[in-house]
Amino acid sequence: MNLMRIIKHLLTDRWAVRRAFPAHAMQAIEDAIRLAEKTHQGQIRFAVEASLDMMPLLKGQTARERSIEVFSQMRVWDTAQNNGILIYLLFADHDFEIVADRGIHAHVGHDGWEVICQKMELAFKQMQFEAGVITGIKAVSEHLIKHYPGKGANANELSDTPVLL
Q1: 121, 160 in Cβ contact below 8 A?
Q2: Predicted pLDDT at 155
Q3: Which portions of the chain are predicted below pLDDT 50?
Q4: Could you give the C-alpha distances from 21 to 16, 120, 162, in angstroms and in order?
Q5: Which of 13, 50, 108, 165 matches a 20 to 30 Å C-alpha distance to 4?
Q6: How many Å apart are CA 49 and CA 128, to the nearest integer?
Q7: How does DSSP assign 10-53, residue by residue?
Q8: Considering only CA atoms, which of 11, 12, 35, 26 is closest in space to residue 164?
Q9: Edge-to-edge strand ranges of the sheet holding 95-100
Q10: Cα–Cα dist 150/77, whole Å
Q11: Separation of alpha carbons 61 and 104, rounded Å
């Protein structure tokens, strides 16, 4: 049990996320997803969570473990070509995770996603929250363009709206 992590999670609430991602930032992120999805057949979702609930926190749940739960709950896996991607941010830990469905993950792999997460985390450390997420959306899209290029009008299978959990 990491006492400092518990304290950080207890002190981080939805308002902290709303300060970092005000309405105009969330709209810019939604617009970036919508624009990116016009260039490929993939589906991108962004979710940010202020902190973990006490029980998962006490059990030592990691951002990675939580992101996989969110991926499932948001049904990001439910795309025709198995190319859905979740960009997840656990705000209290300042930890980005990318969870990709098996179709696109087979092409990129864990190391490829980790490079993108590190870029986003670097922007985050510089207090460039919106820019960091948009950087991640663009980087994820580069992989989707390569492996699932756009073909005319692409169906939007998943909502582009960012989610605050």
Answers
A1: no
A2: 77
A3: none
A4: 9, 14, 10
A5: 165
A6: 17
A7: HH--HHHHHHHS-HHHHHHHHHHHHHHHTSBS-EEEEEEES---
A8: 26
A9: 95-100, 84-90, 43-49, 163-164
A10: 19
A11: 26
**For residue 149, what is the DSSP state?**
B
Amino acid at 7: I
Half-sphere exposure of 112 (CA within 13 A, CB side): 15
Longest dimension (CA), the chain: 52
pLDDT for 152 equals: 59
By residue count, the chain amounts to: 165
Query: Rounded distance, CA 158 to CA 80, Å?
Result: 11
Domain residue ranges of the chain, discontinuous segments joined by +: 3-164
Written as six digits, the tokens of 87 are: 């960009």
Report the C-alpha gap between 76 and 54 in whole angstroms.
26
Question: Dihedral (C-alpha) 40, 104, 114, 61: value to the nearest 10 degrees?
Answer: 120
CA distance 87 to 44: 7
Q: What is the DSSP string of 84-108?
A: EEEEEEEGGGTEEEEEE-HHHHHHH
The sign of the torsion formed by the CA atoms of 117, 71, 25, 158 equals positive
Whole-number pLDDT of residue 150: 79
Global pTM reads: 0.94
Single-letter amino acid code for the residue at 89: L
